[in-house]
């Protein structure tokens, strides 16, 4: 596992695919070219990267590249996990200068991470802990507001986030943990 090792963007996309789809479905995703110049179909995480891009969880760098081997920060990982829960960066007004503060506040409110987890040493161990926190966090669905579509991208303003079900319910033979 290498708990003190770096956590990369490709590893993050893979973990999110497993969190949202489960192992069997994630592994069955079709392998093919991605929308990113630096993630060819032959890359080991190509199908996970493309799945996350299709779901709007990742965007890449904006220059056509994703940086699959680049190391993530805790705040970048929190933003991806919030996306997996259904949070939308535009609806939450996350962007521009200071986006890290906005993500930190939202991640703490959602239960994805504590302030210490977001500001301390970030490695594979901390990434796994934040993923576990996400499994017990509420999903989000936006309701209301007004939408406009520009170049195929839908923008919604004035929507309110309503918490839904737990992301994942763990069941054992004699107990259910919400």
Summarize the structure.
Helix content is 38%, strand content 15%.
Average predicted confidence as pLDDT = 82
Number of strands: 6
**Whole-angstrom Rg:** 16 Å
Which runs of at least 5 residues are low in confidence (pLDDT < 50)? Answer: 157-161, 166-178
Helix-strand pattern: HHHHHHHEEEEEE
Number of helices: 7
The gross shape turns out to be globular
Helix/strand class: alpha+beta
Helical coverage, percent range = 25-40%
Strand order of the largest sheet: 1-4
Largest sheet: 2 strands, antiparallel
User: What is the end-to-end distance?
Assistant: 27 Å
Oligomeric state: single chain
Strand percentage, roughly?
15-25%
Topology overview:
Elements: H1 9-21, H2 23-27, H3 46-54, H4 74-85, H5 99-110, H6 115-119, H7 124-135, E1 138-143, E2 146-150, E3 153-157, E4 160-166, E5 170-171, E6 176-177
Antiparallel strand pairs: 1-4, 2-3, 5-6
Description:
It is a single chain. This protein is an alpha+beta fold and 178 residues long. It has helices spanning 9-21, 23-27, 46-54, 74-85, 99-110, 115-119, 124-135, and strands at 138-143, 146-150, 153-157, 160-166, 170-171, 176-177. It has a two-stranded antiparallel ribbon with strand order 1-4. A two-stranded antiparallel sheet has the order 2-3. Helix 1 (9-21) runs parallel beside helix 4 and helix 4 runs parallel beside helix 7 (124-135). The radius of gyration is 16 Å and the shape is globular.
